[in-house]
Amino acid sequence: MKIAAAKDIMTTGVVSVSSETPLFDAAKVLRDHDFSGVPVVDEKGVLVGILTDYDLVTKGSALHLPTLQKLLHTLPLHGEEDTQELKKIKSLVVRDVMNTDPLTLAPDTALQEVVETFRAHHRVNPIPIVDTARRVVGIIARYDLIKIFDKALLRSSAEGWAEDAFELLQKDYVFASNIAEEKMASAMQYIQTFADAVKSSADAILITDVDAKIVYVNPAWERLNGYILQEVYGKNPSVLKSGKTSSDVYRGMWEALQRGESFVSDEVVNRRKDGTEYREEISISPMRRDGVILFYVAVIRDITKRKEVDRAKNEFISLTAHQLSTPLTVIGWNTDALLRERMGALTEEQKGYLAQIYESSKGMEELVDMFLNIGRLESGNFALRRESLQLADIVENVLRNYAISLKQKRIEIVKQFSQGVPLVVTDARGVRIIVQNLLSNAIKYTPAGGRVTLVLKAEEGKIYFSVADTGYGIPAAEQKQVFIKFFRSPSVTTMVPEGTGLGLYLVKMIAERIGVTIHFTSKEQEGTTFVVTFSV
Ligand code: ATP
Ligand code: MG
Predict the structure, then answer these.
(1) Which fold has domain 6-196?
(2) Angle (nearest 5°) at CA 24 between 20 and 29
(3) pTM of this prediction?
(4) Which ranges in the chain are annotated with CATH 3.30.565.10?
(5) Which residues surround ligand 2, an ion (CB under 5 A)?
(6) Minimal CA–CA distance to 173: which of 194, 153, 156, 151?
(7) Residue 13: beta bridge partners?
(8) At the N or C end, where does the chain have fewer CB atoms within 10 A?
(9) Helix (H) / strand (E) containing 405
(10) Counting ligands in written order, which one lies closest to the CA of residue 529?
(11) Which is the CATH superfamily of the domain at 309-535?
(12) Any atom of ligand 1 within 6 Å of the Cβ of 504
């Protein structure tokens, strides 16, 4: 088959609409035929405009996307759906939103020019082909360009795709009539190497054109989803939608791609051909040539197992923590009773040993509590109780637990509590954990002889609680990381070896859960100030 001009690849027998067609019916035409645009003609078949899916969602004040989607889904409309907005839309006709000055091409336009036109106007799709009297004799969609290679070269096999794309991109090779055979062969070999790499990748790879139509999937993708390339070729990747992915993820994806950026997410739940579901991590990047986006390449990884392992791991930790909690309490109580000499007098040496046991068991209890709380927060089981709280009382109460370490480290506590700070209504357990961790850090990361200042004040409808220390500070480069799970600054771990790096992670999660904000400022060798803001 010889392909030389627009007329050799155009679709004849064009479906068209008139400028008086209700927009509504025109939208149905687009949807039923899966067209991205339809020519608008007068009674003589002369082109007067074009209506694209793009026009439907961007032009005409009444047509806003969610309404349109609803409309397309419920066609034909039922009486009760006729809201004010829908009535307005129903009265619109094609003329109201169509583009009256569409790009057109003549039947004899050389194929090379057709390709150039699509490249130069990447928003345009499709292009009507008109004769000298401007009568529509055919239409070409961008997609037809890919299809010609389908026909002319290998059918949509994996290698076929690579060659299609290659031919499209390397217009000089494709359209120059005198291609040197060996030049072509070496270029083909080059592209074949890439095609092989993509094909043998263990990660699933999917490539779409700019209209989000699938042009290629690799064998790993086929194995993951249960579809073969031929079944999804030309379709939108939404065939995999499970309905369980938050629309925020798709919005984020769409916005990033619109800006020409890459997109990465691990929040997507897909449905396979057999109906089963899996969770994927997906990264999509635009593939450009001469600054124009030609394809989108998506690399997909099935992370269902990883998520399952994470869940099992968390469950294990929380189960273990539960089991440890009871014996630890028993150890704590009984050593306390022994220390108080309830079971008889003790020597100083015995008391010393018991005190050590007591201290260690308290440390372990705290750790177990931390694991339990993290488990609860991560699984969404951290129940909140709303109570009216006097923050000063909570702070005083927590402070009492640190009396010994404050004395040992000769750290001075300065309290600046304003009078008349109103009560806050929130969860006491959560606030306690926050105060306790901030205070514990301030003491832990301040050398002996330092000072910790606690401020409590109300201003402009907000209550501020701050903990300022004169300690080691957090290096600027690490400040972004302190709330990350298990993060501990390498600069302090030698001075303060004990710690899990879970404290601030827990603090952050609780803060989000109970609706308070936490900020901090810090300077190395000068100190750190954490501020908790409550709204009343
Ligand atoms: P844990 O609280 O689980 O015992 P941790 O104190 O190391 O361990 P976080 O409370 O999460 O963990 O703190 C994370 C890291 O942030 C600390 O290891 C430390 O490097 C830094 N950091 C936190 N608070 C301060 C502070 N007041 N001064 C200096 N560095 C701090
Ligand atoms: Mg800590």
Answers:
(1) CBS-domain (3.10.580)
(2) 90
(3) 0.56
(4) 309-535
(5) 441, 503
(6) 153
(7) none
(8) N
(9) helix 403-408
(10) 1
(11) Histidine kinase-like ATPase, C-terminal domain (3.30.565.10)
(12) yes
